[in-house]
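dumping this here before i forget
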Amino acid sequence: MQKCFIASMFSLIAFAVQGATGYSAEIRHPKAVVEMFTSQGCHSCPPADRIMAKFAREDQILALSWHVDYWDYLGWKDTFASKSNTKRQYAYARSLEEQQVYTPQAVVNGRTHVVGSKEAEIRKVIEYFSNDDRGMLVPIEARIDGDTLKVSVSNDDMAHQATLYMVFFNRHHDVTIKRGENSGKTLTYHNVVHDTQALGMVGEDGLKVDYPVAEMKKLGFDACALLLQKNNEAGDPGAILGAAVIAGL
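structure:
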């Protein structure tokens, strides 16, 4: 009887350790990606940021807020802005053959742009791409296996040489603006991008990536997403072919 009790205790301890070291997560595959280029210093941006709050609650949309820094000269330095975010917007302008950038600007699936405060137009573009050959056409297989996020992308003509990115973001921020065009307002931002990492390129054998979940958690962000995106010959971002959202780690 004592031996059975000891054996049972060891089984419970082993189960507890496995539970402590393993992770679980919700992984979903949206039908569209909306990237909003915005700024805390832009008086036209709060309506677009409120639209992003709606998109962030919809499972079929991956909404990502990229804060740019070129409004900082007005007297308020955007607390989330970075030069890399601004460079991404300018790179989109080149790939979309636009002469200038602006805020708020929504880029849908890396293929076209819409004024970010025009919700109906953004939704119309999302629906168009969902029914056309410009949507999320390449599946990203993602699962948690113990302590590892395992990701795979099969190679086909469309996915060949596309790059897989990990995008880290926080789902919610409240910011009190003390100077500039939005002085005195407390604004709420959703799905604010703080870091991106290129995980690899789809080759002849596809792409397989093992990513330690502990490394993801170490960065301190509460959500992340996978983007499979084409780049043009100049390295500027193009069509987004697939996406997966990882939450609840």
